[in-house]
Amino acid sequence: MTYVTSFEFCARVPKLLKERPLAKRFLTNNGHSSVGTLFLLVWTASCSTVPPQNNVPPFSKSQVAERSNAQYDQKQLAVTQLMEQAHQAMQDRLLTEPEDRNALFYYRSVLQIDPHHHGAREGIHQIVELYLTWALEAIDDLAFTKANLWLERAALADPKAPAIFTVAERLELKRSLSRRTIVLPEWVTSTTDLPNHDSATQRAVNSFFQDIAASIRQQGATIVIYSRSDEEGRWIYQSVNQYLPQRLRATLKLDRPARIDLIFLAPSPTTE
């Protein structure tokens, strides 16, 4: 038995009606108009459909490889562009601001494409290191608000970085310290060029520095010396250090007026 597809049937009907007049008269005869109408409706509906199409062949291995290579090239291009933007943002010190135009944003965008990208991970580490460096400098200057800001920015970049906790502990320790500032009067600093002899002025200067050394011993303080020149700073340091049993820990900075900051741990509040 030969089977005929619906599309082949649709193609044969016009030819059949032309070759067999009796079939045409039967379909169009008044007595059989209902049958003819029904036939024509079925034929029209079935033959108005789109003829079947052959199945699309699957991609070959070479075609799949070409598409994969093209996608890989697009990802590499995107990564390269993002890394260039990140490096420029680092140079401009746009580490975490402004939004969507900072180094952290670009590095994280790279990691969304390539989660193991070494350059992006190293870039985020550098952001953390920069913020922690600035935080330590602020702590040394007792600028605690600024130090806390840098710590928050570092945690934004990498909240799990162990160094953040170390710097945070140092900040809390410094917060608990007190500072006492002693401004050196002019009659003290003007004696730097005087010969070391037993004059009334020299005895007064010696007594002045002896009192400072006594405070340092009592409070276990470290000091920051501010002077108008390196030479004056060294002279102030030697004038204090000679009255201490151990070498004094001090930081020298250039500033006016000449002064000494005593930094020591604040006493704990007593409870009655």
What do you see in this structure?
The protein has 272 residues and is α+β, with helices and mostly antiparallel strands. The protein folds into three domains: 41 residues, no CATH class; 102 residues, Serine Threonine Protein Phosphatase 5, Tetratricopeptide repeat (Alpha Horseshoe), CATH 1.25.40; 87 residues, 60s Ribosomal Protein L30, Chain: A. Helix content is 61%, strand content 9%. Strands 1-4-2-3 form a four-stranded mixed β-sheet. Strand 2, helix 11 and strand 3 form a beta-alpha-beta unit. The protein is elongated and about 135 Å long. The termini are far apart. The mean pLDDT is 82.
For this structure, what is the CATH class of the largest domain? Mainly Alpha
Structural class: alpha+beta
State the distance separating the first and last CA atoms: 113 Å
CATH topology category name of the largest domain: Serine Threonine Protein Phosphatase 5, Tetratricopeptide repeat
Strand order of the largest sheet: 1-4-2-3
Strand content: 5-15%
Task: Name the CATH architecture of the largest domain.
Answer: Alpha Horseshoe
What's the β-strand tally? 4
What is Rg? 45 Å
By DSSP (H or I, 4+ residues per run), the number of helices equals 11
Can you tell me the overall shape? elongated
What does the largest sheet look like? 4 strands, mixed
Compute the number of structural domains: 3
